[in-house]
Structures are given as C-alpha cells and as structure tokens.
Amino acid sequence: MSPEDHARAAADLLQAEQNREQIGLLTLRHPEMGMDDAYQVQNALYHQKLAAGRKVIGWKIGLTSKAMQYALNIDIPDSGILFDDMIFDHGGTVPANRFIQPRIEAEIAFVMKAPVGGADVNREDIIAATDYVVPSIEILDTRIQRVDPQTGKARTVYDTISDNAANAGIVLGRERHAIDAFDLRWVGALTFRNGEIEETGLGAGVLNDPVESVVWLARRMAQYGQSIGPGQVILSGSFIRPVECPSGTAIQADFGPFGSVDINFA
Question: 135 Cβ partners below 8 Å, 6+ apart?
Fold first, then answer.
C-alpha cells in the first residue's frame, strides 16, 4: 500500500465513525495489506484525529488472550490509541447514537506517573513508572464490517489494527491501587449484562501478567519512535470475551476487592 492508500483508508474510517456506517474490509480493497500497512493506516488516522482537535490520553492493548489470538490466527497482541473524547464516567450512559455495534471488555488499567519507553523496557521499568492501577471497561466498536456480505470473508487482524484496534471508549472505576497492592494475575471480574452473568476471567489471561502486556506495548511503540507518557492510561488487555451491548444494556463489572465499573447504553 502507498502512503496515499493509508491516508484514504484512514479518512474512510474516520467518516464511518462520524456517520456510524461501516465500510467494507480493507483487506479486500488491498489484498497485499500487511501488519506494517495496518499500523500505517492507524497512524494516518491518529494524525487526522489530532488535526481535528483530539488529544491522546493513552493506549490500549488487544488480542492478549490465547483464545482471541487463536480466533484471528496470530500469535502477538495488537495496540490502539486512546483519545480524549473516549472517556465515559463510571455509572454513566452512552448515548444511543454514539456507536455502531458496541461491545465491552473488562480490563486492568494502568495510569502512569513517569515516561517509559525503549526497546529494552522491562517489567521493573513499567512498575516504577506506574502511578496506580484501576478496574476498567473498554468499549469496542467496529467501523469495518465484521464479514463481507458478498464473499463471506471475515475481517482480519489487519482490518482491526487499521480501525484503531476496534477502540471506542474507556470507563475507569473509582478505586485506585498501588501496583503491588494486588497480584494482578489473580485479579478477576464477574461481568454482568442486565443483571445476568455473561463472562468471568482473571488477569493471568493477559499474557500471564498484565504488567508484561504493558512491557510488550512499550517495546512495540519503540519500533515506531513512540513512548508512553506520564499521565497516560494504558488498557492492558481483556481477560473476557467481548460482550455485545445493544441499546438498553446495563453492564456491571465486579472486580471484587479490586473494585467495580458500571456503564449503561441508552
């Protein structure tokens, strides 16, 4: 793909987000598309959002569980960018016309107090740079069709990465914890939809340790000349399968002693 192709794909994704109308698979439009192309589309989307006045507040890590990696036939996570218009309050309501096909995932979020980056970042670096950890919900949306209606071809990880790793929103719980207050591998969540249990999981589902997920992110970002900044929020990856959230959905993610997060969809 050429730089013009990357920019055009990003513009189409931005328009899809604004109009709430999905576009076709980029991997059908560009069969030659690869991982670098996908991140270049995401980067072009990033620049277009900045030009529109958005600010970066953090990063998300996706595809951290073996189940999701097997589903997309990959063996590495992916990442996306959090922008300042993606924040929703704990217990708040997402407007009915905000997203196309919203889903949620339960995650542990890291809030950073110091910059961290470089190809040699290790877990001690991440621990030292973390201000606190907090229960969170990530809201997902897809601006690209999940399946092409004509060919039956499903979207690939390249489509998802291009689409900002399906990132759409973030909800942080009120509880803040020192990074060493809990063994994050054993922090889990009971996720309820309209009062009924939908999913459960443990932090160990995220690369065996959510800290290692943030290590992966910092090292990947170094390949693109990027780094994690102070005050930024890092969604470390979901330990549950995505939960569909049609209109009228109420979500409660109960992390036990770690806290809770609620969000509603009008």
Answer: 106, 108, 109, 172, 173, 175, 189, 253, 255, 258, 259, 260, 261
State pTM to two decimals.
Answer: 0.94
- Average pLDDT, stretch 197-225? 93
pLDDT at 78 over 90: no
Which residues, at least 6 apart from 35, have a Cβ–Cβ distance to it below 8 Å? 157, 158, 161
Question: What are the angstrom distances between the C-alpha of 200 and each of 151, 175, 178, 230, 238?
Answer: 34, 20, 23, 31, 11
CB 217 within 8 Å of CB 149? no
Residue 65 in this model has a pLDDT that exceeds 80: no
Taking the CB of residue 82, how many other CB atoms lie within 10 A of it? Answer: 23
Look at residue 72 and tell me whether its pLDDT is greater than 80.
no
206: CB partners within 8 A, 6+ apart? 64, 65, 107, 108, 212, 213, 236, 237, 238, 239
Task: Tell me if 60 sits within 8 A of 105, measured CB to CB.
Answer: no
- Which H or E element spans position 48? helix 35-51
Are 140 and 154 in contact by the 8 Å Cβ rule? The answer is no
Per-residue pLDDT for 256 more than 70?
Answer: yes
Residue 250: which of 135, 98, 91, 101 has the closest Cα? Answer: 91
Report the percent of the chain where pLDDT is more than 90: 90
Helix (DSSP H) and strand (DSSP E) numbers for the chain = 7, 13
3-state secondary structure of 188: strand
Angle at 75 between CA 171 and CA 200, to 5 degrees: 40
- Nearest by Cα to 81 from 102, 60, 110, 109: 60
